[in-house]
Design goal:
Elements: H1 20-31, H2 39-52, E1 56-60, H3 63-75, E2 89-93, H4 98-106, E3 110-114, H5 125-134, E4 139-142, H6 154-164, E5 167-171, E6 179-180, E7 183-184, E8 191-195, E9 208-212, H7 215-225, H8 236-240, H9 263-294, E10 299-301, H10 306-309, E11 319-323, H11 326-339, E12 343-344, H12 355-361, H13 371-379, E13 380-383, H14 391-406
Parallel strand pairs: 2-3, 2-4, 4-5, 5-8
Antiparallel strand pairs: 1-9, 6-7, 8-9, 10-11, 11-13, 12-13
This protein binds pyridoxal-5'-phosphate.
């Protein structure tokens, strides 16, 4: 590439998202010697619970860990009957993130993949219905992803679960700040996972957590995140009497991992969750600019109707773009690459086509059964929508897309 053709503006998929006050908060935390999980994590958990309208929020070191902890808590609760048993089937969308799928498999449940709605990328409940009727596995749970900032209708999910007697858990790692039917995304579920990885709506560098309204589940999640011990539980004192010959500070009541967050992560989260509304406004503005620029071209922003009809339901993590043909999708990707606009597949594309899955599940899943997931993988891609993009970057992104879509 000669000097002339090197683009002056670049549009990455994500930016750091940190502001001066976030960095100051981290430095103050380090200077206070607060390193491992403590008061700041508790404060962030309270802020998150209030923001989401949840009874409890349990912070962890990533969204992936949050998914793992949810599955563990359903299989081996410290109180009451397990909600899931090994071998039970869990409905999962064919376009997914790997660590929504892996905990299900790793902890002995059966993934049952379901095609997605090609317009919304959400799990398609008609296909889910079909899977329930035709699967040889006893399906006991559904684990939908709220994709790219778009909340799934909680009442539709709850009705579906009531009809089929399913446990509802939600992966909301991409959809902080989206609301539908009066609830934050995922809050109609027994448990909902969140991620604060650096490309997300708020960032704690790495980080995540689980929201739930179920105190017993929240207590188990607190044990699971910290080696299985009882210390951080609301019912810690009751456990002390159970086993007199065990030191109460080293009393382990559940299976566990070490998936705790650090104080500096919480310090980053506290400031950002207070500013999140302005971030989401900016993201909606970027989505509007792109949707407008693409009118009349061979490209379109998926779900852009929410900008007009249901703004709150979409917090726009990244922008999913659909090309009217496979050829246009390919030429657009090349043109954007040359223009310095980063792109990527929609999540992982059709996850059932990943070699890791076929290697581990042997030939149980045929990727070609997921026609819509394949269609989305071939026709669609994502560009960035970060709230820290400058006006110049937003205009450049919109123009680059418009030019590519016109060719
Ligand atoms: C849908 C979904 N689930 C889970 C995760 C995992 O989150 P983390 O990167 O915090 O582990 C991601 C990551 O972006 C995701 O998109």
């Amino acid at each position: 590439m000669d000097q002339e053709s090197i683009p002056k503006i670049r549009v990455p998929l994500a930016s750091s998202g940190l502001e001066k006050e976030d960095i100051d908060a981290v430095l103050a935390t380090l200077r206070s010697n607060a390193l491992t999980m403590g008061a700041r994590v508790r404060e962030f958990e309270e802020e998150m619970a209030t923001y989401l309208g949840a009874e409890h929020f349990v912070m962890m070191n990533s969204g992936s860990s949050a998914n793992l902890a949810i599955i563990e808590s359903l299989l081996r609760p410290t109180r009451g009957e397990p909600r899931l048993m090994p071998g039970d089937g869990v409905l999962l969308p064919a376009i997914a993130w790997p660590t929504t799928i892996w905990p299900v498999i790793q902890l002995g449940l059966q993934p049952v993949f379901v095609d997605i709605d090609p317009e919304t990328i959400m799990i398609d409940l008609h296909s889910a219905e079909y899977a329930i009727r035709n699967s040889r596995t006893q399906i006991r749970a559904i684990f939908p992803i709220h994709p790219l900032g778009h909340a799934i209708d909680p009442h539709e999910l709850q009705d579906f679960c009531a009809r089929h007697d399913l446990v509802l858990i939600s992966d909301v790692c991409e959809a902080l700040g989206s609301w539908r039917g009066g609830l934050h995304a995922g809050m109609g579920s027994l448990a909902a996972s969140f991620s604060f990885y650096f490309s997300h709506h708020i960032t704690t560098m790495e980080g995540g957590g689980v929201a739930t309204n179920d105190l017993a589940l929240a207590d188990d999640l607190r044990s699971i995140r910290s080696h299985g011990w009882s210390r951080d539980r609301s019912d810690a004192k009751q456990w002390t009497g159970v086993s007199n010959d065990v030191n109460s500070r080293f009393l382990f009541v559940s299976a566990g991992y070490n998936i705790r967050p650090m104080e500096i992560q919480a310090a980053l989260g506290i400031g950002q969750i207070r500013r999140i509304d302005s971030y989401i406004d900016r993201r909606r503005h970027i989505a509007s600019c792109v949707a407008k620029a693409l009118r009349g071209s061979g490209l379109r922003l998926l779900c852009s109707d929410t900008l007009e009809f249901d703004r709150n339901s979409h917090s726009w993590m990244l922008l999913p773009i659909r090309a009217e043909s496979k050829e246009l999708a390919q030429s657009t990707l090349l043109a954007l690459h040359n223009a310095g606009v980063e792109t990527r597949p929609i999540l992982t594309g059709n996850f059932t086509a990943q070699p890791s899955l076929s290697r581990i599940l042997k030939s149980q899943v045929n990727p070609r059964d997921f026609v819509q997931a394949d269609f989305v993988s071939e026709s669609s891609f994502m560009v960035g929508c970060h709230h820290h993009f400058t006006d110049e970057q937003v205009q450049y992104l919109a123009e680059s897309l418009k030019n590519a879509g016109a060719s």
